[in-house]
Design brief:
Length: 550
């Protein structure tokens, strides 16, 4: 039976996919034990492992064994970028995803079997075969994209065993994905270095596997620290590679964790050691199968220090800095819309002083299962919309105290009407300009996002670090600080901003005393060095009995 040139199946997400055919639909994996040259003598005479046969196994046979019924013209034109045909009847093993086979059958395809001397293996058998024979490894190019839940663990384990047998971890090296422009990368790099670790950044371009392993061979890490899944592919292949190499993976969710994992459909993230900046997410994460979850708030960094003294508009006493929404909001939420009636109830609750935060939305929407899927994003969209309204209400209260806003143009529609008109200044650079603004302002006001019901923002630490003075709305995250420091700077319905400011200024020296006390407690207990120490302690606890050294 002749197959259609481009057969179609449905992938693991039930999406229709057109399958490539021909020898060019296969890819030689450069991290094979024989290196990056499929024409090497070891490949000509040694074993081969094929990961996924595609819709036409004869294509793989032509590629590896030269001729299986194809005429000479086909052989010359079918795979211009592939290896020179290898010796006939070599030792070949293959692995296939059962779901792929079922999808082919459901689509009416009946591919011819591979050569009879080829041996089918299970994933575990393939690992043993690779260890014993050191084969050249080929794969059907689309396999991993079609059914990543089957292929990602196998690829990660094979890559680890094929490339770096016997890798031993170095206790003072930490794999830190990202670059200088990425969230918290500089802060964590600085803190790790100060704690005696050697941060190591993996390659950023394309798939990391082979180049990542080469770096790990030179400096095997004690663990990998990823912020918001940075540096890890959705299919979990890099995670499984690190796991197979004995490198623990730490995930620090500094934003809403359900938003972050909603982009994943495979459960590999539950096997990592998780940290969350908002402890209120821990019970649900554990209920969904994440066993090792710890609270880890944001912190202060010595990198955040004034370098200049920018001027504020005349009469501006209270500074507010922030975005009206997070970048890519519309694309992220897409068709995830909260119920209209629930949105109306949330707005009424806000106007009455209530808090329709993310947890409120998940409860009111009856979302018992928060992962997998995108349903949780509808709750997030509702909480995000309420966050904007919540901030707008607070800015209206703060305006009479002499408010100035630094942020995007989206604030124009939400600032309180004049007179006097609230100045809106454009966004500023975080490291060079913002510290000076915090120091120049009499007060900096913070409103915590409703997407993080019990979280803290970077402003809770940065303002004091820069020599400024913070006023904030109340959040459970403030419980990590002494009440005598929290109460004087916290605004609530019982105290207007003007009353709070007047109370602070009635007693001479109160502002300076509070500034000194806040700076002292941050230096003593709440820097990123402290967070790294806590992280390492929790990681060591989770690895107890494994013989790991951190």
């Amino acid at each position: 039976m002749s197959l259609p040139f481009h057969p179609r199946i449905r992938d693991s997400l039930n999406r229709p996919r057109t399958l490539a055919t021909g020898p060019e639909s296969f890819e030689f994996l450069t991290w094979s034990p024989i290196g990056d040259n499929p024409d090497a003598s070891a490949a000509r005479t040694g074993a081969a492992l094929v990961l996924g046969l595609g819709p036409c196994p004869a294509d793989a046979a032509r590629l590896l064994e030269g001729r299986t019924g194809a005429d000479e013209d086909e052989r010359e034109t079918a795979a211009p970028d592939a290896a020179v045909p290898l010796a006939a009847r070599r030792q070949v093993a293959w692995v296939e995803c059962p779901d792929f086979e079922r999808a082919l059958a459901a689509g009416g395809a009946e591919p011819l079997p591979p050569p009879p001397h080829w041996v089918r293996l299970t994933p575990d058998e393939a690992l043993r075969f690779a260890a014993e024979t050191r084969p050249a490894i080929w794969t059907y190019r689309q396999a991993r994209r079609l059914f990543p839940d089957f292929w990602a663990p196998l690829f990660g384990r094979l890559e680890a065993s094929a490339t770096t047998p016997g890798l031993r971890r170095a206790a003072r090296t930490v794999l830190l994905p990202g670059g200088p422009r990425d969230l918290l990368h500089l802060e964590l790099w600085d803190a790790l270095t100060a704690e005696g670790y050697q941060p190591l950044a993996p390659p950023r371009a394309g798939r990391q596997g082979a180049s990542l392993v080469r770096r790990l061979e030179a400096r095997p890490p004690a663990f990998c620290l990823s912020v918001n899944l940075r540096g890890l592919d959705p299919g979990g292949e890099t995670f499984h590679l690190l796991e197979a190499l004995g490198v623990p993976v730490v995930l620090w969710f500094v934003d809403n964790p359900w938003h972050i994992v909603s982009a994943l459909r495979l459960p590999w993230w539950k096997k990592a050691v998780l940290f969350v900046s908002d402890a209120t997410f821990i019970p649900e994460l554990r209920r969904h199968g994440a066993e090792r979850v710890y609270p880890l708030p944001l912190a202060a960094s010595p990198l955040f220090r004034p370098r200049a003294d920018p001027a504020l508009p005349a009469g501006a006493r209270v500074l507010f800095v922030g975005r009206s929404t997070f970048p890519g909001r519309d694309a992220f939420f897409g068709a995830s819309h909260p119920p209209v009636e629930l949105s109306r109830r949330a707005e009424t609750l806000l106007e009455r002083g209530g808090r329709p935060d993310f947890h409120w939305w998940t409860e009111e929407m009856g979302l018992d299962t928060l992962w997998p899927g995108h349903a949780v994003r509808a709750a997030g969209a509702g909480a995000e919309a309420c966050s904007l309204l919540h901030r707008a209400l607070w800015l209206k209260k703060m305006a009479p105290a002499g408010l100035v806003v630094v942020g995007d143009k989206g604030w124009k529609h939400h600032l309180p009407p004049g007179p006097p008109e609230t100045p809106l200044l454009p966004p500023v650079d975080y490291y060079t300009t913002l510290p000076g603004l915090y120091r120049a302002a009499s007060y900096t006001f913070n409103v915590t996002s409703l997407l993080l019901p019990g979280g803290l923002t970077q402003r809770h630490f940065d303002v004091w670090r820069a020599g400024g003075f913070l006023l904030t709305n109340r959040t459970d995250g403030l419980d990590i600080f002494p009440p005598e420091l929290v109460d004087p700077i916290t605004l609530d319905a019982e105290c207007t901003p003007q009353e709070c400011i007047s109370r602070l200024e009635r007693r001479a020296g109160t502002r300076r005393e509070l500034q000194n006390a806040w700076q002292k407690i941050l230096d003593e207990s709440h820097t990123y060095r402290h967070r790294i120490r806590f992280m390492v302690e929790c990681l060591a606890e989770s690895l107890d009995g494994s013989g790991a050294s951190l």
